[in-house]
Design brief:
alpha/beta, eight-stranded mixed barrel, 13 helices, 10 strands, disordered C terminus, binds ligand C2E, binds magnesium ion, EAL domain-containing protein
Length: 288
Amino acid sequence: RAKKKGRNTYRFYAAKMNAQSTEQLMLESALRHALERGELEMHYQPKLNLQTQRIVGVEALMRWHHPALGMIPPVQFIPIAEELGLILSMGKWALEQACADALAWQKFGLPEVVTSVNLSPRQFESRTLIADIKAVLESSGLEPSLLELEITEGAVMANPEHAAELLRTIRDMGVGLAIDDFGTGYSSLSYLKHFPLSTVKIDRSFINDLSQDADARALIDGIITLSHGLRMKVVAEGIETVAQLEYLRSHGCDEAQGYWLCKPVPADEARDFMARHLRNQFAPSVLA
Ligand code: C2E
Ligand code: MG
Ligand code: MG
Ligand code: MG
């Protein structure tokens, strides 16, 4: 009986794996054409300065509208793009699109906001990265200080010496540098201080645990204090409740982004959100 059960279990797994790899193959071949077919779109999530209560930036986040399957989340397609090397062209497109949208908002008359673009580790290794950044700044005409690049601890740790040199070059161009999802990797702030980073983004998991977990609070407090000591700005991601926002504000966190403020939205909605916020300061009763 045990043997029979084992075999059924095996067959079940085999079928499941087959279905998974078929879907995987489908996504892979579709992703190869996503960019040229215009299926990619950049969405933007506003960031709030917790002291001034102003929108001071947006994070650019890629979306893929698959013609049959609908919206595929980045956690699903970014790793495939990374594996197939497609992330290089997709990432370059993201950078161009984000800079173009940022410039359009400026022309529309919105106050200057910093636009942050995620860089994958693979892009970070690319020999053309610096040239790509220079080219996009030149062709868009966006001020370098209005662009920030978000990199992960992993990208830095893979080859620290190369990373340090790249980051110095980018910093010298006047572009901001943020370490994304901080706290999920194995690097420490005392190590990261050797790199010219301007911003630390506290990972969403710590914010999520904030209310139930004293350890998460201790970590958040520590990250804020240390980052400030090292002259870095702190951004909290994944703010979903007023309580989380209040905690971070009262503990000196500089900026926050999350569904509570605004979900990632298409460029024109982001523009409208920022324009509305200008007229009607965001939730003043909460932040007063
Ligand atoms: P990330 O850079 O850490 O981006 C933040 C993620 O948290 C986004 O997920 C955002 O939608 C989500 N988020 C923001 N506020 C909340 C909240 O209050 N609650 C919850 N539950 N989630 C929140 P998204 O857009 O699905 O992107 C996931 C990841 O995919 C990003 O994480 C980033 O690592 C990667 N990614 C997205 N766009 C790009 C891109 O253009 N290039 C590269 N290389 N990676 C990208
Ligand atoms: Mg990010
Ligand atoms: Mg993040
Ligand atoms: Mg994240």
